Amino acid sequence: MKHVPRAAQALEAIDEVVTAHGHRPVGPLLLERDAPSLQDLLAEDGDRLDLAIYATNAVAAELLAGVGVRGDVLMGHSFGEFAALSAAGAVSAADVARMACARIEAFHRAAPPAGGLVALDVPAWRASHLVGVLDEPGLRAAIDNGPDQTVVSGPLEALEKVEKIAADLGVRATRLRAGYAFHNPLLNDAADLFREAVADLHVGAPRTAVFSPGLGRYVSSAEDAREVVERNMTAPVPFYDALLTLFRQGARVFVEAGARQALTGIVRSSLPSAAIAVPLLPSRGDLDGIVASLREAGVGARMETDGHRVPEGTTDGPPAGPAPTAGDAEPGDRPRLLAELAELYADDLGFPAEMLTADIDLEADLGVDSAKQTALLERVRRQYGLPALPGGRRAEATTLENIAALVEELRR
Q1: How high is the pLDDT of residue 105?
Q2: Do 78 and 176 form a contact (C-beta atoms < 8 A)?
Q3: Which Enzyme Commission number(s) are on file for it (predicted)?
């Protein structure tokens, strides 16, 4: 981040707030190679993970601005709406960090009932019908991500029933990594505490256009921005409607300003092919890589590096080595098999092979939907001459490590 001082300043401001609220700084999670993994944070420090997710959004927005990319319209998903308001100048990065800390403290004080989220691979109308049939207290269709996914929110016992009936109907259900029943009235007490805690923080009108999925319209005033903040915890998220609105108004390139690709996948699966979704993750992580990714999508980014302008279409770094040929690995040669699978999946998905680590979750981390995963598993089956894949095992094959284990098992 040495070439974009504002990104470093934003991260420093966030860490100053985070530590003042008794949390460990999140900067190391973004900058250190040996930082805890996503799984470790989920198991041991979910609060710090939430703070790191916002910090990533804030830094990404500054990095994009630093290479000359400023969105015509900003939009966030769920808690990402706070990041959109911050990038638009309605709230400072430090104050959003204070909001994030206040949100965590509100959950701890209110102690809402154990709950979570389950993603169903069905449109919103089908998910709402399923919720209505179950008629479980506190169960809600909370997030509409498009024709292929709706997220249901509710108590853990109710979510278990959702998963069971989904299995009976042949509908893919994925338990998301969430500690609470977000976008649900079950969080009303925590939401009240949160609103009290942030009432004095300054929230102004955005200086850049912001479309709020939660409000279903543009944020045109300080009052609108405050409403986004105060409704965020319990209001449903009609994200699909928001995407359709922006597409109909002419938006064609959607850049995801974060470290994951969940929203990129939603755009690709929900909008017509004229829409281009650009994640930052496939770049190598440096500014040159980000610029190259954006240029490929037709975004006219330019950047200054050490006093010289990066030439069109070039990036720094060593050339990639020769790619292994899928199907060459001998049984028991797990590292080589993982490398082959990474190349195979990278070729189909358009991601750099080095990004496809053994433990990265294809759906949760990359936004690869179930239909695409099934097609890729069939390609793996043909590539390695495997027998028909057991139906029950397909659901487990969401990481390259699990897929490699399945290949080895079926090749014996």
Answers
A1: 95
A2: no
A3: 2.3.1.39
